[in-house]
Amino acid sequence: MRHRYCSCCNRLGELLAHPSFQVKELALGTLMKFVQLEGAHPLEQPKWEGQYLFPRTLFRAVVGGLLSSEDDHSLLLSQFREYLEFDDIRYHTMQAASDAVTRVAAQQAETPLAFWNNAFTLLSSVSLPRQERDVPRFYVKHAEPSDKWKVAHLKLPLSLYKKVLVSMHDSILPHLAQPTLMIDFLTSACDVGGAISLLALNGLFVLIHKHNLEYPDFYRKLYGLLEPSVFHVKYRARFFHLADLFLSSSHLPAYLVAAFAKRLSRLALTAPPEALLMVLPFICNLLRRHPACRVLVHRPGSPELDTDPYDPQEEDPAKSRALESCLWEVQALQQHYHPEVSSAASVINQVLSLPEASIAPLLELTAYEIFEQDLKKKGPETVPLEFIPAQGLLGRRDDLCTQFFTLS
């Protein structure tokens, strides 16, 4: 059947050069009907449901027959003009005519005048629309793709999710003609949770910043990622680098910045030292950018722990009442056992200078590096441990353990 169909199309193409105009007109109408039917019922198997397959091979044969090198087809081309009202026919006509001109010019040293006349008549019949229409007109109808083939509905493995999202903002979005098509995919990735949500926020921020995307829940999603586990995940450095970028705008409302500062301060109570050395300058930078939030430090009559109005269980930062509270958690960290942490927490008591403290060198800081730095520090030569000499394990002078407690 495929062989018979191809033979029929070839014979109809030959009839485009028939001496009788009525025969040529009927052959053209039949071929264009075949173009429409073959588009609706493609001979090739679509790669996915609802894929649009325009019958380019058949249509190029039709345009090739119209651009005859021997006969003047101006009258037949006037009949073809009715099909040029459709957007897909105009597009593929321009492509097929360009290929035909290139092929004929390469094959023949001197292109016949009849060919140039036919090409000019065809191309001059293509009238491009003067304004963009909301609904394009297609001659070859095609079904809309099923919802299960939308990018947002693809269930990717978590490992592949991370690989895609890591390169989304710099390797994918800048090269898309319509980056906003990734909105559904990124918003659905935000609902996955954990590192997936963090990496998806990076792509959403690019769409918000550069493509005017309105996503009111962006900072609410970021606020929800602030959990105790954020200090122990693999993407901790990337998270705080992006959070610093997201909160860098001076136009953010004071209640929002106060909520982030308060949430980070509360989480800092159980954070390891290597994370505290990065989080405390981060909080100070937020107060530097937003002077309206400095009331969290210099609030007269600060609330006690049991009367703190801040609600750590509230998911909406606008309802957390953080701006009514104070950063007593940072004051508590001034008594931390690690001297560098207590020193970093004490900075908040001073007048915060305008230049921000760079947190870039602290993002990758690990407990091993802190331990190595402490080993390299030179302490005092003598360290008093006990001012009363030990008299033995049980207090007897003849105790054998006395020598282990004797200090030189």
Describe this structure in words.
There is one protein chain. With 408 residues, the protein is mostly helical. Helices cover 50% and strands 0% of the residues. It has a domain of 145 residues. The chain contains 18 helices and no strands. Helix 14 runs parallel beside helix 16.
Question: In brief, what are we looking at here?
Answer:
The chain is mostly helical and 408 residues long. The protein has a domain of 145 residues.
The structure class reads: mainly alpha
The helix-strand sequence is HHHHHHHHHHHHHHHHHH
Give the helix tally: 18
Given as residue ranges, the uncertain stretches (5+ residues, pLDDT < 50) are none
How far apart are the termini? Answer: 105 Å
List keywords for this structure.
elongated; mainly alpha; 408 residues
